[in-house]
Specification:
Number of helices: 10
Distance between the termini: 19 Å
Shape: globular
CATH architecture: Alpha-Beta Barrel
Helix content: 40-55%
Strand order of the largest sheet: 6-5-4-3-2-1-8-7
CATH topology: TIM Barrel
Structural class: alpha/beta
C-alpha cells in the first residue's frame, strides 16, 4: 500500500460488463485473474457477478452467488481481502455469512429487504461501500437531469439522508465508505464527472472515507473523442493519479499494475 491509498482490483465474473464482459466468466480464468490482481499491487479483489452496465441483463440472485462463492473461498484461503459488488439482499446476506471484508453496493442498500439484512447482522457487518447514482437504480442510465451546477448539492443531500437511514437500522457511519459515482451513474454529460472530481477534496472532508472508480468510464471515452473502453487506459491513469494526489482512500480499477507502478514513480518524484 502506498501512502495509505487502497487499490481495489476489479474482477467481473459476468457475461456483459461494459469493458470485459465474458473474459473471466469461467472460474479458472477468474481465479487466475484474482491472483494477478493481488500480485500486481491491489489489496482487495472487488468481485462482481451482476453487471450494472446500461445494457446488462438481470440474473437471479442464486446464479449471481453461485458464480462467486467458490472464488471467494479460494481467495480467502490465500489470505486475500474480498469485496463483493452486489445490491441483491440474498447475495448481501451470503456475503456477510462468508465474512467478506467489504460489500460494494451501487444502490446504497436502497430496498427494504437489504436494510433488513443489515439490521439482522449488525454485529457481523463488513465495511459497506455506498454509491450515489442519479437514478438511484440498479443499472447505469445515460439520461440525467443533473447539471454541473446542481450535481454536488444532489450528492450531498443523498448521502446525508442515506447516513441517517442506515443509522436507524443499526449501521454506524464508521462502517461506511462513500462513492460519489462516475460516468453514466451521473449521466451522459462527461462534465458531470469532471465537476465531481474537481470537488472531491471537499467531498472527502464532508464524509471521511471515500472510494472513486473512474476506470474505463464513459466520461473518459467521451472527453477523448468517443474511444472504446479498452482504449481509455491513459485517461484513466491520469485521473487516478489526480485522485492519488487528493489522498483519496480507495480507488477501484481494472488496471492494477498500471496504477501501482505509476504511484511508485510518483512517490519517488514527489517533493515534500
Amino acid at each position: 500500500m502506498l501512502d495509505s491509498m487502497v487499490i481495489f482490483g476489479i474482477l467481473n465474473v459476468t457475461s456483459d460488463s461494459f469493458s470485459d464482459g465474458g473474459e473471466f466468466l469461467e472460474e479458472t480464468k477468474a481465479e487466475e485473474k484474482g491472483h494477478e490482481i493481488i500480485a500486481t499491487g491491489a489489496e482487495v479483489i472487488d468481485i462482481s457477478a451482476q453487471s450494472s452496465n446500461i445494457n446488462a441483463v438481470q440474473i437471479e440472485p442464486e446464479l449471481e452467488w453461485n458464480r462467486i462463492a467458490n472464488l471467494i473461498q479460494k481467495f480467502q484461503t490465500s489470505g486475500y481481502k474480498i469485496s463483493v459488488d452486489t445490491y441483491k439482499p440474498f447475495v448481501i446476506q451470503k456475503s456477510i455469512e462468508a465474512k467478506v471484508d467489504y460489500i460494494n453496493c451501487i444502490n446504497s442498500f436502497r430496498d427494504k429487504k437489504s436494510l433488513e439484512v443489515l439490521a439482522a447482522n449488525q454485529n457481523l457487518l463488513p465495511e459497506l461501500i455506498i454509491m450515489y447514482s442519479h437514478n438511484n437504480g440498479d443499472m447505469a442510465e445515460a439520461k440525467s437531469d443533473l447539471t454541473p451546477n446542481t450535481i454536488m448539492d444532489s450528492i450531498y443531500q443523498f448521502f446525508d439522508a442515506k447516513v441517517s437511514e442506515l443509522q436507524k437500522v443499526g449501521v454506524p457511519e464508521s462502517k461506511l465508505i462513500f462513492d460519489p459515482g462516475m460516468g453514466l451513474f451521473l449521466g451522459a454529460d462527461p462534465l458531470l464527472s469532471i465537476e465531481v472530481l474537481k470537488n472531491i477534496s471537499e467531498f472527502k472532508k464532508r464524509y471521511g472515507r471515500v472510494m472513486v472508480s473512474v476506470s474505463r468510464k464513459s466520461f473518459i471515452g467521451n472527453l477523448l473523442g468517443g474511444i472504446p473502453p479498452k482504449e481509455r487506459g491513459t485517461g484513466t491513469l491520469a485521473t487516478e493519479i489526480f485522485l492519488y494526489q487528493q489522498k483519496i482512500d480507495f480507488i477501484r480499477t481494472h488496471d492494477v499494475k498500471q496504477l501501482s507502478q505509476a504511484m511508485t514513480i510518483w512517490d519517488l518524484l514527489k517533493v515534500n
